[in-house]
Amino acid sequence: MKMIKINKVKKAVALMTVGALAMSIFASCGKKTENVTDENGRTIISVGSWPSKEGQEKQNMEDRKQKFEADNTEFVIQPDNWSFDLKSFYAKAAGGQLPVLFNTNFTEVSQIINAGYGADLTDELKKQGIYDKMNKDVMDVVSKDGKVYAYPFASYVLGLAYNVDLFKKAGLMNEDGTPKQPKDWNELAEFAVKIKKATGVPGFIFPTANNVGGWIFTSVAWSYGTEFMKKDGDKWKATFDSPEAAEALQFIKDLKWKYDVLPSNTFVDYTEQFKTFGTGQGAMVIAAGDMPADVRSYEMNPDSIGMMAIPRGPKDHVTLMGGSVFAVSKGSSDKQIEGAIKWIKTAYSPDLTEQFKENKEKDIKTRLGNNELITVKSMSPWNNDSDAVKYERELRDKLANGNPNHVKLYNDFVADLGDCKLHPEEPVCAQELYGILDNCIQAVLTDKNADCAELLKKANSDFQQNYLDNLDY
Description:
By secondary structure, this protein is an alpha+beta fold. It is built from 18 helices and 13 strands. Strand 1, helix 2 (56-71) and strand 2 form a beta-alpha-beta unit.
């Protein structure tokens, strides 16, 4: 549900009728087309999400294009400013207007695969030496029946971001610059109370809107033992009308009414949660490793940003794994698939080439120029022993612009999860589920007498009837 740099949460949710129509149109489509070339005989690779705004990001892409075309004279890169969202995606797919290469989030991969929109990349990934270097946990997300349908370029696990300055004032920092780690959700609530008492600032931020609240809530609820859905024969059944889910929702309710540690604003979407954090109006927030990019516009001192592991739940220690991928549109020629993979590799590769080093150094220096903390080391889509992973992490250490101990607990967590389980996002209708759960969260934060079990009973029924019962795959 996230990418570099693409929002974790896709706020545009596709209408099911549009999605069903697009699926039916494409179910029988997808044969390879003839190779598409320009007047010079070069194979055209149209690339989506091309920056439209003048600036360093666009210039970096233009420089990358120029070098790629010089090194790979049989290909030409064609910029396309369209960026993925489900609603426009279905319309473009139906009209055959998708770029050859587009990017999206882990959440959408299963829909793309099941609807037949993505090309099979398996053979080309093997030919270009990528297949065996992929992180196996990530590969599971982008594969079906032994075939790989997307090229992962970013992955993440959720952790806990914290404001170093507020932690210091509450006596929650150790002498070595690491924070005290809340071992479970109850201790997180206790930390939040201490922070508010010491500083007057809300100790914790929990999102509630535009699917973000539901997205974050799933990770909390899994740690309480919640199962949101399961396959029953060829049908999906909603299963979160359960004591475990009610207990998790009660915890969120208690943050407001028992502990009083949340901001007064009860409509908190993705932007608002990081605005609150980035302006020092909240001390902790559940976030992924690229969180520093989300707060840079608020001029937060990089050295005031810290990260650590996500707390444990009463039943399990679990965190959500998400990420971003490139997909090649179905119908692209074999030559276009070859060129698309080669283009991706210039910026996202397990191999340590000179071009990769040049692009990665540009990227990190651009982030430094934006006053973005660079010491956080997110989960990689590649094996930990790949040369590219080692190079990037060493480069971040060399150019560090913050105390590395402020993020040490998160970096150590990512490097060795211990008994913490990685949990991918829910397999079908994830965005629709998040929206329904948003409503439950808003209800318990605005009504002290809200009944968690009753809210979830209705939500479970609505999710089943309005979404799962309408699935045709």
